[in-house]
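Hello again,

I reread your note about wanting to compare the complex against the isolated chains. To keep things tidy I'm splitting this into two emails, and this first one only covers the full assembly. Below are the input lines as submitted, including protein chains and any nucleic acid or small-molecule components. They are followed by the predicted structure of everything together. The single-chain runs will come separately.
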Amino acid sequence: DSGVTQTPKHLITATGQRVTLRCSPRSGDLSVYWYQQSLDQGLQFLIHYYNGEERAKGNILERFSAQQFPDLHSELNLSSLELGDSALYFCASSVEAFSGNTIYFGEGSWLTVV
Amino acid sequence: SQKIEQNSEALNIQEGKTATLTCNYTNYSPAYLQWYRQDPGRGPVFLLLIRENEKEKRKERLKVTFDTTLKQSLFHITASQPADSATYLCALGGFSGYSTLTFGKGTMLLVSP
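Full-complex prediction:
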């Protein structure tokens, strides 16, 4: 158990809908990362927050947004969902924001768009 | 363009042998490289980190090398066991100033008894 908690574990929704994925980082970790994993693309970095502030952005679509709250939990909002958004979404956390940190992954949220 | 390449074909080896996985990268200057293990449907689990000024790192049956001239890392598992069967991901970091990692697509390792 990495200590990173993600909910929901599985989600099935229709195209055009909006969903929110939730992440609680490990106790004491200030950084939260979101990754998307699909079969053909591998693990793709979406966004990184540190202590409530956005630190880095990767291949995150404009239809997607994220935030980190004062209690350090984070939410990833996916809107106007398309079939291609079906993937495993991982949250990860680390103590600091800067290089050399180990990051700890949650078990992921399976999103299926039908 | 930036690329991280790991062998997309599964590596099949017999129990007790040494497994060697390769990670090659282009157009990156990472400060460090990490290796993760991922089981089907689970989150990646950190195994080892090696920095750009280190040539080799060991942890129990695991060994990682990092050659910044060749832009390559090798990941070895000695005395492999069926329980080592998983997908192994390499990840580069430190080039953006933050600890964001960029992952390769991984290589599946299958260890048969």
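For quick reference: The mean pLDDT of chain B is 92.

B.
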